[in-house]
Amino acid sequence: MEEIDKTFNEAVADGRIHGAVLLAKDLTGGNIRPLTHSFYKKLQLTHHIATGKVNISRSYGVRSLREEDPEKRPPMLTDTPMRFASCSKFLTSIMVLQCVEKGLANLDDSLEKLLPEVAGLKVLTGFDEAGNPIEREPKSPVLIKHLLSHSSGLCYTLTYPLLHQYRKWQGLALEQDYDNLDQNFKYPLLFDPGTSWAYGPSLDWCSRLIERASGLSAEEFLQKHIVEPLGIGSDNMTFELQKHPNMQARRSDMTFRGDVTFTAESATPSTGKLQYRDESYWHQDIQPHGGQGIYTTPESYMKVLWSILSNDGKLLKPETREFLFKRVLTPEAEKNFDAYCEQFKAFVPGVPVPVEIKHSHSAGGMLTLEDCDGDRWRREGNLSWSGLPNIIWQIDQKAGICSLWAFHMKPWGDPICVELGTKFEKAAFLMLK
C-alpha cells in the first residue's frame, strides 16, 4: 500500500482531490468454517472467516473545502458520514429481500397491493400533434423482481428525451429534487416490464414498498434489520440526517470539480480548482428514497459488504444472499444493459471496468460476466455498483474480496477519481497474489 498512499497523498497535495476513503477486506480459502445447521450442510454452504491478507482502511485529505484556511479544514476519516446516493440501492435491495424472507412479499408479486401508484402506470410511446402524451397498457405487470433489476420500465429522466418532454407536459422540473416520490418519479414506463433494462427509480419506490409490506417506516426498517444486526449505530446510517446532529457535525461537505467537459462518449479531465458546494439535502430530510437517500459512513457500508461476502447470515439467509449474485435479466435486456454501458462508458454506475467486458444485472447490482484481467482484478461473477459522488463498491466471491472507494465529489464519473479509485482497487486484488 505504500505506492497507493504516495499516489493519494500526492493527489491531495496538488489539488486533484480534496480527500478520499479506501477500504478493502478479503477472505482466505484456507480458513473456512462450515455452517453447522443441517439445512446449510445439505446445501454445502459456508461462513468465511477473514485471515487478514487484505485489510485496508485508509483516509486521505479533508472532508470539506468550506473553510478558506486549509488549516481549519477537518480531516476525512473512515467514519465520516456521506450521502451515499445510488449506493443506497444495494441496501434497499437487501431490505426488500428481507421482506421476502419474512413472508411479507414475494419477488413474483405484482404491485397492485403494495405500490398501486406504480402498478397503474402505462407505457409512453410518444406525443400527438397537440403535444399530449400517447400511452398504452403494458403487456405484462411490473413485478417486485423487476424493481430490483431495473427491468420495470421505470427510467430516470436524464437520458430519455421522451421523459424530458413528459416532465415539461406535467409542468414539473426535469431535475428530480422535490421532497416526495410522487412528484419526482410518477411518470410512465418506457418499455414493457421484464423486456429491457434502464437505469431508473425502481429502488426509490422500493422504500415505500418496504414500509407498506412491513408496517414500519423505511428508517425503522433500516435501523432494525441492517444497522442493529451489524452493530453500526444509528448515528452512522440513516435516511433521516436531520434527526442525527452528531452525523451532521461529522459529515463531509460536497466538493465539485469545475470545467469538466462531458459528452455521451467521454469526459475531458478538469484542470479547474476544486470547489465547496452546498446541497439542499444537507438541510432538509425528504420522503425516504431507497435508490439514493441513505446517509452513512464508508466503514459502516463496508460492514454490509463484508456481511454479504463472508456469508455470515446477519442480514440474509445464505440461500437468499445467493440471489444477489444471480443473473435475472432476459437476453434482450442484457443486450440493452451492455448498450447502456457502452453509451456511458466510465460513467455508468459501478463500471470502471472496460466496456468490452460483458455485464448483466442481479437483484443487487451489476454482474461482471468475465474476468477483467485474468486473476488480477474483478473476476467473473463480481457484483458492484456506485453512487453519484464517486463512491464505488464491489464484492468478488471468486477472488474473495470486497472493497469500497469514496471521494464524495461531483461530477459523477470524474476521470481523476475513477483513475485513482481503480488503481487502488487493482492494488487490493494484487495483494491476494
Automatic annotation (TrEMBL):
GO molecular function, one term: hydrolase activity
Pfam families: Beta-lactamase
Keywords: Hydrolase
Domain named Beta-lactamase-related: residues: 49-331
InterPro entries: Beta-lactam-related (IPR001466), Beta-lactam/transpept-like (IPR012338), Diverse_Enzym_Activities (IPR050789)
Family, as annotated: Belongs to the class-A beta-lactamase family.
This protein's name: Beta-lactamase-related domain-containing protein
Species in which this protein is naturally found: Xylaria flabelliformis
